[in-house]
User: What shape does this take?
Amino acid sequence: MLIAALIIGAAAVALIAIGYAWFRRGAVGEQTLARHLDVVPVSLARLRARLTRRFGSAVAEAPLTFAVDALNVTVSAVERGYLAVISWPLGPPGRLGELRIRPRRANAVTVGHRASPRTVRMIERPPNPLGDAAFDAALCLDCGMSVALPLLTPEVMRLALAADELTVADGVVRCVVGATAVDPAEAVNAIGAAVELALELARAAASPAEVLLAVGARTHRGAAARLRLLQELEDRYPGGDVLRDTLLAAQSDPAPIVRLEACQALGEDGRAGLWTLVLEDVAPESLRVAALLALTRGGQELDAAPAALARLIQPRTTPTLAAMTLRFMARRPAGPRDVTLACRALSSESEEVLLAAVALLEARADPAAARPLLDAAEDPAVPSRVRKHAKRVGDDLSRPAAALGVLRAVTAGHEGRA
Assistant: This one.
């Protein structure tokens, strides 16, 4: 009897434990369901009064439809928010039919890493990056850039980022908004932002693309976007007054890469701006080199004063620019400080700069450079190829014939002036 009682007691305890676990499981399930219900949008009936105050009287009951300026706004509930569909007259044919904007999708994949798996988030690259970091990180463009660039004004992009999902096609904006909003005011604000976006797109569609590109090239917040817009303006509207005015204004752009583009496009009128960029110490060396190449393109001479050359030949901070400057100096007639600047460049750690300096000193054939060249040839830290070249040129300049040649050249110069 005692054994039977123990068995019955154990069974009762087990049943109670199972029942309690089942009860807790149901409670957790109810809490999960409650949390799920918390993010379901409020009913359209609760939105109607607020939408009416925002947009005026509704012209249709279900789904809610309002007329705003030249727009037709329709709002309906979806599983995770509200779908706002805003349409307007298309305007010029083809201006909007090809434009689609969609959110970037993030796909999580699991990969093996030793004994334990880890999750890696793979983000797809936007197919047509505009250059605006915030826009490109959030949205993708399914269209040609020639269609998108005139329409994606800074104001349009700011409003586009506020939507959870966005599609623009055939003069219709479809936005999923208020995906987590349970307060009618928040939902109405999100829908209002979608309407503002549609109004901005309608204005852009009705404005000349040339003007929109010019405004974006001057005012966009992203330097890469300003550059793209300026290049698009150059390609689509070459030779126009709008382009020239925009290029002149872009010479004062805070971004060196935009200034470089504008100054090169201006030709002779942009040479002063190119020189400013070449001598700008805070600009990236690659852009300064590109500006120097533009100044000497087509066989033009390096028309820089000695003080400017001294700023360019900074072999420890800008070795590529220094080497290029030395090579351009070797192609032009001798200047008063060429030998001094080239001898200073012999202290560089860059083989490219050292070779250019030796070549310039060889071209100038000044015996005063013999000692610095021979010192470089004896320096074990100098690359062997440079040491060999410096030794040969230094020995040549040390010979009496080299000094005599320099003296004859100086004498001939004085006789010619006399």
